[in-house]
């Protein structure tokens, strides 16, 4: 039975929350057509070398301690590529990336990099929403002739919703996440990076991503928040 390891790594959480423009006042619509009142820009961390060093160090530490067996690392295109690359180079391990679909030209491969057929990959991506994209990555890795039994993400939307994790057992992959939105919100409010009001709005989204904005009371709460000229927090959110 595949393992599911859901962590709240305090150093990674703080590394995210120190990033400039990590929280943005919405509304923003996600690729899953959900409305976010406050956008959490996970990819903004790639512009912050200090935070990237912390995240890389924590992933490397976990990989070494857990003795995960693999021959090479793949980043999920495109957002997983930077962190997979820094982790791979820190470990001295060959690194490449996997696409959700063939490029449509050149070699038309979904897995980029020079690796021996039958070798085992470790897949690293930036974040987990509902898992559909991760299944595409896993299927393409296996179809390309490689083995995989471990997927690692830096952050997940939420640990409290079992619907987000139904896919990983049938996919026959161990899943590891280093923090989730609940952990990020809690720390951001505590350190006054965002206001308690912004934290509450993000919690509404976290609890019901697809439907929170259909609740008239919650939506009006967001509109009232958005009208405020000033938010007393480090980020101004």
From TrEMBL:
Q: Which InterPro entries match?
A: PRTase-like, PRTase_dom
Alphabetically ordered keywords of this record: Membrane, Pyrimidine biosynthesis, Transmembrane, Transmembrane helix
CDD domains per UniProt:
PRTases_typeI (cd06223)
The organism encoding this protein is Candidatus Buchananbacteria bacterium RIFCSPHIGHO2_01_FULL_46_12
Spell out the protein name for this chain: Orotate phosphoribosyltransferase
Q: Name one GO molecular function term.
A: orotate phosphoribosyltransferase activity
Transmembrane spans:
70-91
Q: Which PANTHER family match?
A: OROTATE PHOSPHORIBOSYLTRANSFERASE, URIDINE 5'-MONOPHOSPHATE SYNTHASE
The pathway to which it is assigned is: Pyrimidine metabolism; UMP biosynthesis via de novo pathway
Q: Which GO terms describe its biological process?
A: pyrimidine nucleobase biosynthetic process; UMP biosynthetic process
